[in-house]
Predict the structure.
Amino acid sequence: MVSTPSLKVPASGLATAEQYLANSDPAIESLSPNQQLLPLTARVNDRDRLEIGGCDVVTLVEQFGSPLYVLDEETLRTSCRQYREAFSRYYSGDALVIYASKAWNCLAVCAIVASEGWGIDVVSGGELYTAKQAGMDASTIYFHGNNKSRSELQQAIEIGCTIVVDNWLELETLTELTQGIDRPTRIMLRFTPGIECHTHDYIKTGHLDSKFGFDPDSMESVFDFLTRQPTLSCIGLHAHIGSQIFELQPHRDLPSVMVEWFQLAKRYNLPIQELNVGGGLGIRYTEDDDPPSIEDWVKVICESITAACKTVQMSLPRLVCEPGRSAIGSACVTAYTVGSSKTIPGMRTYLTVDGGMSDNPRPITYQSLYRAAIADRMSAPLTETVTVAGKHCESGDVLIQNAQLPPTQPGDILVVMGTGAYNYSMSSNYNRLPRPAAIVVKEGEANLILQRETYQDLIRQDCLPDRLRGDLS
């Protein structure tokens, strides 16, 4: 694979926003999308404007409004293909890539990943319903979550997906709900492998002090319990060590731990055949980020599983992984319209946009870093340092600290990069702002995939008792 070009940033900041582009090589499929700041199809057109998927971003805002999520279909499909093809190269056993849809679950995204031969990981009844409505095959749906309700478990049983069991209550509830059902319900067991990785505390999930999964000390009791449950078919084990990880060593360590538990499960005569190693590969949010490529990540996973199995003379299991952020994060940008500004002499300049923490809560939640560009003038020198703030009534509603931008004016289109993961999916109606629209672009065509909410949508679920109506008259 062609290596990703490094981004050299002068001490005073980027010279122009054009340096955020991947490169001018037309062979974009050779670039690992998670290592790019902008979607693979991003270009500067002859009007000096940012173009994605053959569509002028400024024109897209004129057509669909602002704020606007712009998803590049080619980047998402390239990620899907790179994962799938890398597993074919490096793993001689059976493998399945499933999309961690909590990153962004909607009909269009589910349909795209399904058409690329992926399965899907869901964590709620709503995500499960959406996946099925998008046409996902139940045999490729895996249902996660540490506190699934009885109704969600019943829904999963009826659909026939694989349920990733997280705790004793869930296991006991499933035993009860499956009584009298002729077809055994497929389950996997999630356990905490005790592997630390360097990421934000909120997205560490593999260490022992975690709300997710069975503790290792309880696994033999779980295996023993399952030997007496004919309605539950334990097909595999699952572990996930965290998100936005740049290190490969934790992923080298995980397989040997999982193979050890896999062998133990076999001794209990469980029909175990799959190992799900989770996901967690990070993406480039800023020029300082240096994540491994998709191919490098897959290679480490495959070689480590293969080596661990060879050491204990075990045949290769079906290998499952569940990337989310690394598949879709860099495929999307959010376009905002610039509004007011405020300069505090000797301190900072606030530049305000027409969205903020309601469409991207990650900066205020995780202190996440982003980069931005002015889509109207991509070659303009980056001479200004500003704080990009949202419009919400919250002092912490800041999208980017110390953003390097050209001089701006009200009405400019500011594009924030890398917003495909955990932006729309974590969005809210704080201050009763309607959620933005989302479009997918490809080869000059733009299609709506999520309609912009209206004020009527905001009150659709509101109920006003008659006695209160009288008080208002």
